[in-house]
From TrEMBL:
Keyword NAD part of the UniProt annotation: no
Family note: Belongs to the YOS1 family.
Membrane-spanning segments: 6-24, 70-89
Any one GO CC term of the record: Golgi membrane
Keywords: Membrane, Protein transport, Transmembrane, Transmembrane helix, Transport
One of the GO biological process terms: protein transport
The keyword Disulfide bond belongs to this UniProt entry's keyword annotation: no
Pfam family of the protein (one): Yos1
Organism: Cyphellophora europaea (strain CBS 101466) (Phialophora europaea)
Subcellular location: Membrane
Official protein name in the record: Protein transport protein YOS1
Top-level taxon: Eukaryota
Length: 91
């Protein structure tokens, strides 16, 4: 295992969280709770906000999730392979 008080646990937690976000299914999970891209475009405005407010916390979170899913998927495969090999050899 990587050093207990070093960056090891931080690396493990960040990789696990990125893996969790990368495998979220927009159709099966995010759309059910109203966090899909299609739901944001059809949402009705709440008090003091326009219908498609790009600065709302929900729209920012949906955009962050979709960008992580698109950009980080291939590098995460490489990082996971490196971590698995590290754990098999030195773990």
């Amino acid at each position: 295992m990587l050093s207990l008080f070093g960056f090891g646990p931080l690396i493990y937690v960040s990789v696990l969280l990125l893996n969790a976000v990368a495998i979220l299914s927009e159709d099966r999970f995010l759309a059910r709770i109203g966090w899909g891209r299609a739901h944001l475009q059809q949402s009705e405005p709440s008090f003091g906000q326009s219908a498609n407010d790009p600065d709302s916390l929900k729209s920012r979170a949906v955009n962050l999730i979709s960008s992580i899913r698109m950009v980080a998927r291939v590098p995460l495969i490489a990082v996971n392979i490196v971590l698995i090999i590290y754990e098999l050899v030195l773990g």
